[in-house]
Protein 1
Amino acid sequence: MPLSAPITGRKRADDNPGQPEVLPGLALRVTRTERTGPGMTDKERPWPGCIRSIVRAHLRSWRCENASADAELIATELVTNAFQHGSGAEIGVRMTLTPTHLRFEIDSGPGSRPRPSARAVGQLEEGGRGLLLVAGLCDAWGVSPDGSRTWCTLTVAADQPGPGR
């Protein structure tokens, strides 16, 4: 399963007046197995763990280890949801850092169904808690109108060192 991972460059605040400075980020796409559509194949099951390791490594390189546990859980949940419910041939993962927030965007392909939403689950249900966890850990989260992209932001502590801080 091919993986491409271009790293985004630093974008200065004066490039977009009124917008926060975006520090280096991560953008990658995982090409799904021959079968596309909802559900995760056995070949795809390792990907959430791989993405979690990539997130951990990037946070370490950015000197943001204090955010790592929450960020890894968020990435795992959102990537798993993209595989389980997405309909695209690729899963896109983007992680960017501003001086105050870490932002994730997970693209699961056009017209992903059902549209992601946090929902109440029964005690005996095995799944359905991922977005509740994301909502509890993040400052904000949402879904694009077509349901193909889920995003969230996580505060990075002001006293935490990081690139450009």
Protein 2
Amino acid sequence: MNKLRILLSVLCLFTVTTLCRASEPAYVGHVRLGSSFESALQSIVREFGEPTTKDASQIIYKDKEYGGFTFDEIAFRFRNTKFNEARFTIRAAGKYQASRKVAELSQWLSKRYSISKDYDDGAYFYVGGLAPSGIGRLFTIYRRKFDGVWHAVLRYGPF
């Protein structure tokens, strides 16, 4: 009977802890995921300055320094007027350089988040943080080739 009580107590504690973590807000920098377009825009401009372009579906920066990196593009995306995705992209001279940038981005984010490394399609990629739902990862760091050019990408969401 005592073992059953201990098991039930541990199970309840685990459930409460999981539910509490699931309700914690997630951020990209100081911008809260799920915030309204107007609220997110104010936070984004405060942290990143005036955007290169913006419309109701996305806010774009070109050639922006952030966190010690120069990103060729930073895109904050919205669905149903809510902030749900961000992509930080660095162009690379080739596949190897893109992989190096992916590793550097993972080292930078590992100072703030728990990160895991995996291997797929001939390259390492990294996932980390906790999604706003409490299930899944907050971000993914990977390399990709787009229009014949290799990139390192840090993607938050979509959620």
Protein 3
Amino acid sequence: MQANKIIIKRLGYEKAKVMLQGLGNEYDAALLEYRRQHNIFEVGDPVIRKWNNQLYWIISDIDNGSEFLIHKNKDAKFKDCKVCELHCNLSHATDAEIEAYCRLDLPESVVKSLGEVS
């Protein structure tokens, strides 16, 4: 994993993405970690929507990184998506948040109520 970070740092994210994307989970994980650290969002990324603290997936980038179509189902179709107006309304989901399907740094009462929201 450390070697992947060095490659990304030396080449820059865009060039490293072209070289590493699709080569395997270790490389994809390094690219995702870089995006998380540098607040870069791409199609396929799991994100938390800040106003409801729930997990969504970026389905389509409709405005060059500032507006995305998102959905709770990772494999949703374009027509089924909700629009998140600005990238500032999103934060990258951690691996634990993906498993929990919501933001984890919330009070327990809020996390319980999220399970009731559709």
